[in-house]
Amino acid sequence: MFKEVVTDVFFDxxxxxxxxxxxxxxxxxxILVKNQLNVDLQDFLKEYxxxxxxxxxxxxxxxxxxSQLRYQRLKRTFDNIGKTISDETxxxxxxxxxxxxxxxxxxxxxxxxVLEYLSPRYKLHIITNGFxxxxxxxxxxxxxxxxxxxxxxxxxxxxxxxxxxxxxxALTKANVAPQNSLxxxxxxxxxxxxxxxxxxxxxxxxxxxxxxxDLCKIINDLIEIKSIL
Length: 229
What we know:
Blueprint: E1 8-11, H1 20-34, H2 41-60, H3 66-80, H4 87-101, H5 111-118, E2 123-128, H6 132-141, E3 151-153, H7 154-157, H8 164-174, E4 181-185, H9 188-197, E5 201-205, E6 217-219, H10 225-228
Parallel strand pairs: 1-2, 1-4, 2-3, 4-5, 5-6
Helix pairs in contact: 1-4, 2-3, 3-4
């Protein structure tokens, strides 16, 4: 399907290659204990995970700032579990979360095997909405940085996926036409619809067990990429 035309493969990072939920849980486990907060981690994460996704959507849509994202997702989580936390402590946690998150390096199963398979055959790139100061650390810490040619983040682009400009910038930097490019990501809105809006092919890594759709081909394990490309 893609083999005949694709020369460049663009990956999302968080929730696609880098196991955000596992690394995030380990980070919270560390900083909640460090700050002597008597909170059950599983109760905290049960509230935090959907709240974080909700606030990232607001951030993508430029309805909140980076600092609001970092504060409000924690504030609402603590409110929901009935834990009163001072603004000062929330700000400390927000800072320490970013500081420690990239020190964990768990990847989704088969990430390295797939990158090893693809890298001699295609030029590989990253397009991410993550923050510039930690995305490169994540790539280096998980030992996959060397596989990628161009690494485009939303702070460099000045806009976030699914805005067309971030994809157009990535294509320009990679010096490739959209019809020869494939975007692989977990977010239907940011990755799949965003990429398709500027003419890229798309492959949906269904990391969140979303329902079937007809927007593009769906995979549930990265290893399936080897049978497609």
